[in-house]
């Protein structure tokens, strides 16, 4: 029974229920624990300031808007794994579709994504304008990023090729960087 404790009438009703024994446990001891309900998600929210702090689109939207107003920063397509099973002298071919939840190697993919983000941040230090989006399509790894034009074009192209070749050799799969350059960071709103 859900009872609000905000008014004195509710407190009297609760006291009557306790005296009547309907809130007693089977062991004979009486106990009632009342805590305030807090159903607000406060993680990853930007605090409101004086209106002089610039925010990007990713920072301006709250975490519960992921999938509605903004997308995920890591996208993994479902891969079909071919499994051969032999049951009762018959051979079955099964396709197992894998997602991150409950998939073997989900933790490894998450660690790989963290490593790629840190590697990109270190390689293009001070040039990232927004968050990095990582897409996995079968065996292909696509890294999308918005960069600021703070480096000469020749050095920028060298770093793109360097990053693609190092990550390709490290993960043993083709890696493609999709880079767009901006003059300055795009401000969505000020807080």
UniProtKB/TrEMBL annotation:
- Its name, as the record gives it, is Mitochondrial ribosomal protein S24
* Superkingdom classification of source: Eukaryota
- Would you identify the family this protein belongs to, as annotated? Belongs to the universal ribosomal protein uS3 family.
* InterPro entries in alphabetical order: Ribosomal_uS3m
Subcellular localization: Mitochondrion
Organism in which the protein naturally occurs: Scophthalmus maximus (Turbot)
**One GO process term, biological-process aspect:** translation
One Pfam entry for this protein is MRP-S24
* Keywords assigned by UniProt, alphabetized: Mitochondrion, Ribonucleoprotein, Ribosomal protein, Transit peptide
Q: Which GO terms describe its cellular component?
A: mitochondrion; ribonucleoprotein complex; ribosome
